[in-house]
Structure formats: C-alpha cells, structure tokens
Amino acid sequence: MNVILDYDVGNLDSVMRAFTRSGMDTVISKDKATIEAATSLILPGVGAFNEAVASLKKSGLIPLIRAHIEADKPLLGICLGMQLLYESSSENGYTEGLGILKGTIEPLPPTNKVPHMGWNALRFNRPAHPLLSKIDEHDYVYFVHSYYADCDEEDVIAYADYGKKVPAIVARGNVYATQFHPEKSSTTGLNILKAYKEMIR
Fold it and tell me: Catalytic: 79?
C-alpha cells in the first residue's frame, strides 16, 4: 500500500488520482497504524517551507517518516515535499528541514522569471537510473517553484535548465523525489510513477 501523507498542506486528491492511474494501490492518510503498515510513502507539498515544516511537526508524522526510511522502505517526495527532505531552507528566513538528504533549499537566481512555472525539459544526469526507464531525455514536466535544492550532484538523477541546473529528480538510497509535479506532467509524469511502481514492487 502506498500512503500519501496528509499533513494539511496541498491538494492531495490530484496526487492520488495520478498514482491510481499508474496502477498503484494508494490512500491518503495521517493515521499512525496506516502509515506504519505502508510499503511506500509519498510526501507531497505546496506553499512555504517554514509553514510546511510546522504542519509536519504538528501532525506528528516526522518520527513515522524517519522510521519508514530507516526500515529501508521507499519514500517519494513531490515538489515542496522534495525540498522538505533537505537540511534547511532560506525561504522566509532560516528553517531546518528533515535532513534526510544533504543540501539546502535556496532561491532561484533572478536570471529567469521567478517563480519557475510551467513546462521544462528534463536533462539526464544518471541516465541508467530505473526512475528514468520509461521516459526520454528532453521530455517535458510541469514545475511550480521559486526555490531549488543546492545539493550533491551525485544525488541528481535529472535536472532542468532554468538560469542554472535545477535538480528535477533526486535519489539517495531508498529516498526519491521530484521538484516538478508528476501528477500535472501528463504522460511523462505518469510514466515516472509507473517506473517508481516497478522499482518498489
């Protein structure tokens, strides 16, 4: 069972519909027993980093997320959910993140319009990674963000060019994440979720 974590941040129904279309048995939950029984967790999110961290703390989900990862079970972060996995963010002042991935969340450079909103092509950094097995380089996905992950390049599976190389898909161990919204990324997003399904089978 894939569990989409409900911590009162973002529209979770569209995320669940995308997972359902990809053939994955998925529920939205904040229930401790349901989360502990999950084979895979999905950490979504939209909005500001500091507010999302506060909501996560209030929900009591952080220890469950850590226990899930420590049990070597897969987790997929989406958009702000990806950013929360890092050590800290400078959005609205300094805020500590979950520290599961190494790196910080920094503002996009003003060389391009901010927020980065709309379709952008993926460039492969680790083309053999199984998350990329059902898509092609230069396929387009949908972004909505003003901050990006300044992180170790070896964690970057794919990136997008937007005034700089913006990490678009990252992975370390059993933790995976996308800066874009796969649920809004048409066939490409659906195929990435199908690849995730095969990886965690």
Answer: yes
Catalytic site includes residue 151: no
In CATH terms, the superfamily for domain 2-200 is Class I glutamine amidotransferase (GATase) domain (3.40.50.880)
pLDDT score for 11:
78
Question: Can 51 be counted among the known catalytic residues?
Answer: no
**Span 109-134, average pLDDT:** 96
Q: Per the residue annotation, which of 68, 79, 145, 151 is the catalytic one?
A: 79
Catalytic residue, from 68, 91, 151, 183: name it. Answer: 183
Q: Which residue ranges make up each domain of the chain?
A: 2-200
Q: How far apart are CA 170 and CA 174, in angstroms?
A: 11
Q: What are phi and psi of 176, to 5 degrees?
A: -130, 155
For 34, counting Cβ atoms within 10 Å of its Cβ (0-12 exposed, 13-18 middle, 19+ buried), the class is middle
Residue 68, pLDDT above cutoff 90: yes
Q: Using CA atoms, how far apart are residues 104 and 83, in angstroms rounded to an integer?
A: 8
DSSP assignment of 58-92: HHT-HHHHHHHHHTT--EEEETHHHHHTSSEE-TT
Task: Give the per-residue pLDDT at 10.
Answer: 75
Region 15-44 average pLDDT: 97
pTM listed for this prediction: 0.96
